[in-house]
Amino acid sequence: MATLTVLMLAGFLFWIDGGSGLEQEAPYRIHTLFSVECQNYFDWQTVGLMHSFKKAEQPGPITRLLSCTDEEKRKYRGMHLAPTLEVPSMSRHPKTGDWYPAINKPAGIVHWLKHSKDADNVDWVVILDADMIIRGPIIPWELGAEKGRPVAAYYGYLVGCDNILAKLHTKHPELCDKVGGLLAMHIDDLRALAPMWLSKTEEVREDRTHWGTNITGDIYGAGWISEMYGYSFGAAEVGLRHKISEDLMIYPGYIPRKGIEPILIHYGLPFSVGNWSFSKLDHHEDDIVYDCGRLFPEPPYPREVRLIESDFNKKRALFLNLECINTLNEGLLLQHAANGCSKPKWSRYLSFLKSKTFADLTRPKFLSPGSIETKEVANQGGNQDQAVDEPEKSHPKIHTLFSTECTPYFDWQTVGLVHSFHLSGQPGNITRLLSCTDEDLKQYAGHDLAPTHYVPSMSRHPLTGDWYPAINKPAAVLHWLNHADIDAEFIVILDADMILRGPITPWEFKASRGHPVSTPYDYLIGCDNELAKLHTRHPDACDKVGGVIIMHIDDLRKFAMLWLHKSEEVRADKAHYATNITGDIYASGWISEMYGYSFGAAELKLRHLINSEILIYPGYVPEPGVKYRVFHYGLEFKVGNWSFDKANWRDTDVVNKCWAKFPDPPDPLTLNRSNEDILQRDLLSIECGKTLNDALELHHKKRNCPDPHSLSTSKRDTGKEDSSSRKFGRFDGRNAVRSNPVPTKNSEETSPPVLKDRLFGSLRFWVVALWAISGLGFLAVMLKVFSGRKSKGILKHLCKLNLCGRQCKLVSPCMLLTKAAPKVSW
């Protein structure tokens, strides 16, 4: 009877639970891991991660895998910062001697699996990086993780999964997933993967032949992301296929997808709010954890963000930036208290960190069903951002191109465009088409600025001798099509003097085979007159377009040769260079390449979808509500007394000169808000200028430029604020290149300024000189008058007062007061 009762009770419980408990046993034990080294740099990151771990209510224990040498451990102060498993350091490889600290991550996990009892009492493992802030619980099965199917964040720059690198380092290149950052997997999968992760990391690290940026996507070209490839190749070897999400993790500065709350912030890149900014690289040696009362620089307040940004999604992104730095600072405050520091003095910022407003802003973010989609789900048509009439299929691959030459002028534009590409969320890869002569290449220093396809220069036409650098654009595209391994279905073509503000995709802007998308270039009046009739059989199909191009690869293959030939043809037609025919204000055939594009497309009857909401020139008044995706800073633009004109920087090397940058634009809070059109125009102009400077600053940091503050004599503390101090930051005039630049040497050394000696030209000198001469004359008269014994007493008195100056040092007063004293001429 008792047995029957138990069975009936079990059946009842099964009925009310719906049988869901049969799929996985409960409770599902979770353990979170992160890897660090014995450095101040990792200590403040540990404080931030640990604080957010508790704040987000992440279930299960957490372990810090601490890799230290014996020497580092003796000096280490931070053993109390987190639950810790000490791991032998592999920063210096024990066999090869290679210095590569990133290998400590897979080595630490292998060590944890072998030596920690926790590894025997867990079902799921969440692996994070130290430079992360957790915003809400990371529950693997709620994210869709299964045994054999881990969940991970998308790392699109791991281009080696698609090329020879994967073929060299895994037997299953087709299984290589571009993932990293956040990893959530079953413990059995981790046991199979970890040793392979470590060995593949060693293997890729040793393969120096394939460290190039165009193969790995590593902007340094130094094998620094070998550990990431070790993970992807190791997972491919053991047959793990990831469920990949672009929504779980976000970099500060990126705009989250509509309706999505990321549960993880990864502050691996610099980010900013107004003129305030933060970069973890600025705090590499910072002992802020042990410096009582000191926090990271105070960011703006939420109220100020609402003033400077009206766009809802951009405002969300700025609030995420604030949440990241404020959570770090809140963690530091609590850690200082735990360290025994005295209570800090009251300030408005400390009051904010303890306020209900901040507590409400940083409450744990819980996933709602279906709010986070993996690529597997999205590819089945579940993407909420999908257009109504869009086919329910996976999005096609995209590749972005831009054309440059081997000059400083194009180098700083490249830095700006590539930086904005990574911030914009543009899908796919980007390639710079670099047109250089052999002589240029021998002296060129910017090979590492972008993934690059090298193209023979046609600036000087090989047949006609005509000097026309703009023809390199169609020539380079044609060369790339004929020499590159291309797997993209759509190609996006940009100019170097552009800044991306958001993704440009064929599915959003309705590009299709036979119907490219572009932006209006209304000044191409030659499409409406005799120029088109002379240079195309289909003048009625001539579209006035340019700037941004989205074209199907099949159309581009047919079109590229015509683009080049028509450019040559229009360039040779000097009889029709006139402004009233071409619209070229210089009447010099300078826009022949643009007509080459329009006439070539007309020959194939490619009809463009012309969209005026993709591109805007800074300085133009934006249409209300339009979210422009591209800045094209081809023209001068101004905000008040500040201005920027790319032509002024044609010969200035701001890329190879450490900390060089453009003059900072005004603070958005200083703008006049009486006219909304003018305000929005100026905000866009400021954004463009600031993005260029942010890109240069990050570039200089990546080049390991020395700390700019150590290169000049520090200012004395006068107790006064710098007159250029602003709420969101401080203008550092030392780093600004003058607005009328002159060519500079490609040197990263900073020499102290040579100061001319202006002493003899100053009034002060002559006053002092006259005073000294008068004084000496007076002394001479006095000595003459008071000769004999009296003069001795006076002289003795003068020497005691040191009023004789140099003479008292040349002749001893004792000698002067004796009979044996030599005669001295004063």
From TrEMBL:
Stretches with biased composition (Basic and acidic residues): 714-735
Keyword presence, Acetylation: no
Native source organism of the sequence: Salix brachista
Domain of life: Eukaryota
Protein name (Swiss-Prot/TrEMBL): Hydroxyproline O-arabinosyltransferase-like domain-containing protein
Localisation: Membrane
Pfam families per UniProt: HPAT
Swiss-Prot/TrEMBL keywords: Glycosyltransferase, Membrane, Signal, Transferase, Transmembrane, Transmembrane helix
Predominant cellular place of this UniProt entry's protein: membrane
GO cellular component: membrane
Record domain Hydroxyproline O-arabinosyltransferase-like: where: 31-258, 400-655
The UniProt record lists the keyword Signal: yes
Topology term for the membrane: Single-pass membrane protein
Transmembrane intervals: 765-786
A molecular-function term among this protein's GO annotations: glycosyltransferase activity
Annotated region described as Disordered, given as residue ranges: 703-752
Signal peptide: 1-21
